[in-house]
Amino acid sequence: MAIDEMLLDSLTQSTWDGCLRFYDWQPPAVSFGYAQKVDPDLTRSINAKGIDTVRRATGGRAVLHQGELTYSFIGRSKSPEKAGGYLMPSVNAAYKQICEPLLQGLQSLGVQCSLGSTEAKYRSLADCFEASTQADLQYQGKKLVGSAQLRRNEGVLQHGSIMLDQSQTLMPELLGLSKVQDAPARHANLKDIGHFDRATVADAITRAFAQIFDAEMIHSPLEPIEMIRVQDLIATGKYAV
Predict the structure, then answer these.
(1) What are the residue numbers of the active site?
(2) Cα–Cα distance between 61 and 37 in angstroms, integer?
(3) In the chain, where are the structural domains located?
């Protein structure tokens, strides 16, 4: 979380216009949206099961990072006063721009997804994957990719979780949600559609980002000074739940 926020803060002083990352979590974790209220007893219960908890800089609801692939995209936003930039100033338009290479990348693997629809009840839910919004991707009516965004100055950070092989019941159990006998699947999993590993999914989406944004993708490890900034962010305690 600190690396993504550091990259967002560095955007205005950087020569690059966008950054795409993929990562998984060791140990598994539940991330909560920046404004999501969390009972301390819930945090302790989740931690007691060997699963970390962390506060995201982006909004949205709780996400379980296990059996999934996390992506983040940091991009520069256009403005009426300033030429250039990749992303439209409208939040909804920027979501669609970033989701388009996700859709195209998955489509290249034979996975036909569509954008979700706005759900008024979403904000009242604890679990991100209980409902789809226009920022999400769904497969045959089930949420496959959940995303959330943060804007700061001309920078945009979008986090997302791509379901690979996640339990249908673990997250509801962690959040203490009531179970329904023979309830339908909570979300879609890529493992139920085809045999896709993390590298294959990341490569397909990367190629789609390069094509749609007409960009050359360059692998760039973090610099020592960037890691110092990351540690400074962690030291603030802002990611603690």
Answers:
(1) 128
(2) 10
(3) 2-235
